[in-house]
Amino acid sequence: MENNDQILDEFLLEAREIFDQLDIDFVQLEQTPNDKKLIGNIFRAMHTLKGSSGFFAFHRLEKVAHAGESLLSKLRDGALSLNTDMADALLETSDRLREIINTISALRAEPDGDDSNLIENLKALTEGKASIKTTNTADTNSQNSANPKPVVNAELSSDDSLIISKQDNAIESPPIQSELDATPKVDIKLDSDVTQIFQSIEASTSHPQTVENDPMGVSKSTEIAAPVKVSVELLDKLMNLVSEMVLARNRLLSFASNSVDLNFMGTVRTIDMITLELQERMMKTRMQPISQVWTKFPRLVRDISHECGKKVELIQIGSETELDRTLLEGIRDPLVHIIRNSVDHGIETPEQRLAAGKKEIGTVTLKSMHENGMVVIEITDDGAGINIPLVAKKAVEKGLITQEKLAKSSDREIIDFIYLPGFSTKEKITNLSGRGVGMDVVRTNVQQIGGSVDIASSSKGTTLRLRIPLTLAIMPAVFVRCKDQRFAIPQNNLFEMVRHEPKPDSPGLEDFYGVPVFRLRNKLIPLLFLTKELNLSNDSPNPNEPLSIVVVQAAGIRFGLVVDEVLFMQEVVVKPIGPLLKTTNVYSGATILGDGRVALIFDIAGMAVRSGLISKLMDKQFEDEIEGDVESEKDTEPMLLFDLLDLDRIAIPLNYVDRLEMFHASKVEQRGNSDVILYGDQIMKLIWLSEYVEGSTQKGLYGDEKLSVIVHYHNGNPIGFVVKQIHDIVSIPSEIIMISPPQKGILGSSIVDESVVSILDVKDILNLSGLSQYVEPNVVNSLNTNLSISNASAVN
Amino acid sequence: MQAYSTFSIDNLYFGFLTAEVVELTKGLDITPAPLGPKAVSGFINLRGQIVSAIDMRTRLGLSPGVHDENTISIFFKYQGTLFGLLVDEVNDILELDQSTFEDPPSNLSSAAQDLILGVHKLPQKLLLILDPNRIIAGIVETQNN
């Protein structure tokens, strides 16, 4: 019922617009009676009205409009030419229709009334007869109840709620001029003016409803105030003014913070609050629900699935999520592409689905939500997923990658090929998709509006995740200091802020083969030092100094940005910085601070790419996030993979690994019967793992050789495990396959990526090497403890 | 006759058409732009607009100087965007005709050759005429390569 009401409201609005246009057209027609185009316009308007009336079963409306239309069609075809009688009759038709419409809008139903005179008259004219002169006896009761000039109604409705409607929503052009410059002179009048604007905006955005107190108590009438149509340019202009206002407010705030004048400070606070609200409201005027774009999709899915012979159901979740209207335009095409892909490529035919043990009807789920100041749109299908071998094959065919390289590529790198222009795995080009202009368009369009696209795919389906900023103009940002400069980090990218204090018992910054990392709740986070990234200084950070780390996330990658100081948080207006810094990729714009100086805003994703983090770490983290739900983290344990001479793929649990180092063999010294090396201000005992692990061979040392050493702190003393080569961190399933007979130094084996990995028995080796009073390292991951204990018997 | 706004950088005397100049402002704060092109000194807030400031000493391959409150920015528009040129000192506007004009000498340094349209031989000194558009276009081109 509510839905019908909404449709009716739309119809009434449309009808009013038509009448307004008709009035102008009729007058024009009298002056230029032979203007065929004009008659055509009027005819069409009348026709539209008739059609819509038929839909709502408003028979009076339909009949009158029909009679008018008949006459107009004769005029349009040139069978008759317009005379005053006809013009009068047509104008009367228009008036009558308007009356009826007004009554409908008041009563929500068509009033009774007799239009036979008017209709007869029109008929006579249509047949070329003279006008039947009638006085305007349209004895409708409509005039009485019609209320063409709505006034402010504030009356009690039946359920005792008072609803007030403001009809005087004349939006005055806002008197916010650049008066609000640096001068702290503040006009109180501004305050009230602004409030007034709010009210008018409010009145124009929400549909105020009035409930008249019907004496009969039967029919409730709802008056809709026609929304004011405001041109987009005007909205943009207002938006810009609001942006300027925010900037001026920021400057004012910095003045106020140095002031002792209580009155001034109070006024500034008022301005601050009003500006905030003004900004929010202004944003609201541009916000529209995503359902505006989604409404077309059920039909789209139906058509495509019919054409492919598939059965697909579309589920929409969160269609009320609001987005800035310019962004809404920007996501329309990408979404169409994605949905087409999902149905055409993703979902299998019913037979295939049944064979694969899936439900016959495939589903495509559209889901949108707000997340960290961004709008996230997920398009999930439960189809076959991306055929990675096929994508790989096509990539090789197209010469995008060599076979050798392909063998080394991860699934994720292969999936990335689908973003390339002209890349399609479809054998045949269909009407729907396969022309290869899909994913590249999606990515380009989404990136243009400052968003990002992620894909996760498995045999259970594919999920595309679009992250779209809410709005482009104003955003919250965190300001950080680096040397003597201030920079802004968009809050969208911000994950958390950590102050890292080095303590003697906890691992500080660790070196992961050139990449500094630190542990954030048992997760390794790569670090970027802002001073180094920006070439502001080459000094290495002092490991004993506390670090301010801003943990950010971009393109699915989480990393820490080490800054000199975290300053404050502020709403900033993003301004373009022109073409000269485009290729640095690390700035997305700039903003003006309270003191009038410029601060650059970082493009966190660009920075991750520039520093090489994205290509280095993309695979790992992305898969972590997607598979996190499916595979519980408890079933695997991170281990460091390394080789010994003649024995490949050995893994050591990561919590035994404190640092990785390279030493020149010449630095190794003899102490008694063991090898040691000077490590910082400590002496590190070296353990040649090849001596302890069965199957590996030992060879002599050459002075210029480099040793790879895994450093482990044992009761506070460093111990270095010498290995041949260090590879990577892998997730090892906790289920360990025992080897029979047991191999010295090896706890057992596990299978990773379809090959066997031997797990080092660290405890055993430490015992054998004479460090008998072995104490478990401070293990955070309890699993490892269990793992070591339960399997210890197998070896000892 | 054409009007030239003249200014000096590192004791050299430069000018470009007055019609190109939007405004001159002294002593604006410059926010440096790390990783940006060398010739871009940073960004200036010109009444709410963010303007790239070009260090003319670097751009012209002259000896580097320090910018302070006496540095003057000459603003002009290139393809609809405002840019600021940082110069040492601004001099008079001169009305000159073509009779004193000559093409630049061919052995000019490559950094300058691209930017200097020619030279007016004034009684006391030489006035080098700059092409402001090339100043920006040149930086954009090196960025794209």
Can you offer a commentary on this structure?
The complex is a heterodimer of chains A (796) and B (145). Chain A is α+β, with helices and mostly antiparallel strands. Chain A folds into 5 domains: 2-145, Four Helix Bundle (Hemerythrin (Met), subunit A) (Up-down Bundle); 174-213 and 222-288, no CATH class; 294-466, 2-Layer Sandwich (Heat Shock Protein 90), CATH 3.30.565; 474-627, CheA-289, Domain 4 (OB fold (Dihydrolipoamide Acetyltransferase, E2P), Beta Barrel), CATH 2.40.50.180; 633-795, CheA-289, Domain 4 (OB fold (Dihydrolipoamide Acetyltransferase, E2P), Beta Barrel). In chain A, 38% of the residues lie in helices and 25% in strands. In chain A, strands 12-16-17-15-14-13 form a 6-stranded mixed beta sheet. In chain A, strands 23-27-28-26-25-24 form a 6-stranded mixed beta sheet. In chain A, strands 4-6-7-9-8 form a 5-stranded mixed beta sheet, with helices on both faces. Chain A is elongated, with a radius of gyration of 37 Å. The termini of chain A are far apart. In chain B, a hairpin with a 2-residue loop joins strand 1 and strand 2 (12-17). Chain B is built from 3 helices and 11 strands. Chain B has helices at residues 56-59, 110-113, 132-144; strands spanning 2-9, 12-17, 21-26, 40-46, 49-55, 72-78, 81-87, 89-96, 101-102, 116-121, 126-130. Chain B is mainly beta and 145 residues long. Classes of the chains: A alpha+beta (796), B mainly beta (145). Chain A binds chain B through residues 244, 247, 485, 534-536, 575-584, 586-587, 590, 592, 596-600, and chain B through 29, 31-37, 40, 42-45, 48-52, 81, 83, 136, 139-140, 143-144.
